[in-house]
Write the structure tokens for this entry.
Amino acid sequence: MQKRVLKISGIFLVFIFTFLNSIYALSPQSSLSYEGIDVSDWQGYIDYSQVKNSGIEVVYIKASQGNNIKDPYFDINYENAKANNLKVGFYHFLTATTVEEAEQQATFFASVISGKQADCKLAMDYEQIDGIDTQLINQIAMAFVQKLEELTKKQVIIYSDLYNSENTFNSELASQGELWIAYYGDYKNLENVNSSWNTFIGIQYTDQGNVPGINGSVDRNLFAEEIFLDDNSEIPNTENPNGNYNTETIYYTVKRGDTLSSIASRYGTTVQEIAQINGIQNVNLIYPGQVLRIITNSNNPGSETNGTGKTYYTIKRGDTLWGISRRYGVSVQNIVSWNNIQNQNLIYPGQRLILYGNYSSSSNSTVYYTVQRGDTLWKIARRYRTCPRRIARINGIRNPNLIYPGQILKIY
């Protein structure tokens, strides 16, 4: 009799342990069978035929940010990803600080993706939350999700890092949308995680992925079957509440005497970029009457760094002004102006450039930034065209919402 009681007690303890562990474990909802990437204008022009051939199956494309910023590469990313039979999803970078603004941004996002066909659930990326009360954060997120679902008739998921999934977003929001988590460790080892979600349907496992067809790094993901929409019909039309977008794709008709260099200079882009977008094999061969597609972005983050300091950068073999501008978060036009460069496509190793901004550069291109009053990781990342999660990881920051003036951060 005593042995039987002990045996039952042992089974009961195993049951309790399993039950408690299931409360705190965060695991995939089903098998993570689909290789994916998420992209924005940060990647520039992408050769999606190479992406497809590399084994990528899902592409999440940044459509919009804030109240009126349409990602300048959204349309071409969508067209080329679809043309190569990749599964496509869209995301919006939410910057709202009120419920009303959240609904406005949901309407703007819906207007940007109107008429497009998404294969994957729409995603909300809400990272700019410094200084906002946790209760209000959840109200803002909920308002955005509900308004977006109302307008698009599509399901919405929440993109979040592990910290915010545990400490910021609540169970009510979790019940409204499934989780796409950013976690750069072993996702099979997330026991004892006290998250508002028990499962996730996608994981961003690195921001330093390398994929053929993409210059530089790209976020890599694994997705479960649940990432796909039940209904992938065309997204209903929503009128843009702002009347226009502050980024656009324009079509330029080549005139006599034009060169790709002069056109690129006029629109703040590069010869290589125009050539890639328009399938031009010989950059010295264009003709009057030819129509070129050119992507412009009037919301250049570099405008935030004018006049706050000076440093010098020594050009290395393989550098381009476009690459340097992205690294330091300034515009090509500013670099050209600051250094009196006559031909932006003609720079040489050893040439020293003057750059303005709150950063310092060494000969190995390591960049450091001294935190100023009012800074957030999101603002710093946006200035340097990088990711707040990457800055946090490089500097060992456990709480991405806690930085202080005078703190020196390594950016690259």
